[in-house]
Amino acid sequence: MRNVLLPVGAIAVALLLFGFIVSFAGVSPVEVWVLLFKGAFGDWYSWQNTLQRAAPLMLAALCVAIPARAGLVVIGGEGALVLGGLACAALAHAVPLPSSLPGTVAICMAGALAGGLWVALAGWLRQYRGINETISSLLLAYVAIGLFKHLVEGPLRDPASLNKPSTPALDEGLLIGTIAGSDVHWGLVIGVVVCVVAGLWLRLTPSGFAVRVVGGNPRAAQLVGLPATRLVVLACALGGAAAGLAGAIEVAAVHTSANAALIAGYGYAGILVSFMARHHPLAVIPVAILFGGFGAAGSLLQRRLGLPDASVLLLQGIAFVLILASEALRDTDWKAWFAKLTRVPSDGPAPQGEKA
Predict the structure, then answer these.
(1) Which residue from 191, 210, 236, 199 is spatially nearest to 67, judged by alpha carbons?
(2) Are 115 and 278 in contact (CB under 8 A)?
(3) N or C: more exposed end of the chain, with fewer CB within 10 A?
(4) Which among 132, 121, 141, 138 has a CA at the least distance from the CA of 71?
(5) Residues 101, 58: contact at Cβ < 8 Å?
(6) What is the rounded distance in angstroms from the CA atom of residue 212 to the CA atom of residue 231?
(7) What pLDDT digit, counting tens, does each position of 307-333 carry?
(8) Rounded to two decimals, what is the model's pTM?
(9) Do 323 and 329 touch, CB atoms closer than 8 A?
(10) What is the pLDDT of residue 306?
(11) 3-state SS assignment for residue 354
């Protein structure tokens, strides 16, 4: 119950605070809440926008969730995502690939490999050099974004791209298509499958159990002889591979080339999704859909109420702070707390019995 009620309560309070803040702009909080729901889940068109945004969020969240099960706090998914998209676009034009499913699989694997190696570096620095993985992964994300911009605007730039530098567009046969009868691409299915596989791996396999032991009790893992260093690097590599795959899917399904639009903050939003899901890969799926809906509703708030499209980032930030704060309440003994709150204080010392 705590695992469900605390995040849901944090989101509810975040919505209340968001409505209170936008009221200073002369906007009705109730209207904002209604439009948030309509923009995210109001009709089939809204659902399609929500699911399109949820696909990369699922994979970006795994970049935080999988290392977290090994006891690490990795927040550099944005770097792995952009490098995955860059590797996808670069391989398609560096190597002749068949314009069919094997070629699409190859460019997606290239993205996963680039992201996995990049985040594995943070795990390696932590295990072999004692560098905090939170700081190193965040700084590596900025390095990755700088490298991405340099290559897209320089050596890999398509001469035909003028005001918006980008790599050459992928061949039509390499693109990831949409699910029949909708605008939702198959990346959503890939994201769901990867989340399910990650959850089953952590729960049912010896290596997944070993990763959870390392994250839950490193001392016990050391005593039983588990290769903690190798498992930590493996968890980082798998998380980074998920984020890199998200970048490759965004290129192959949405943008058709690597450009600045790929730096959309999915890696940072994935941090929030993972923390709200308590780093459980299966719980990542509904949470990613929820926050994909918040992102999809931003344009509706802008059109109807004149609020900035980025106002939903404020909502996400408030939610993140409240979700982290709610962790302090997880071990609270609520029965004792309510008993103390409802206890009637005595008016004075109890009367002493009369002496014989």
Answers:
(1) 236
(2) no
(3) C
(4) 132
(5) no
(6) 10
(7) 887 788 888 889 888 888 877 776 666
(8) 0.88
(9) no
(10) 83
(11) coil
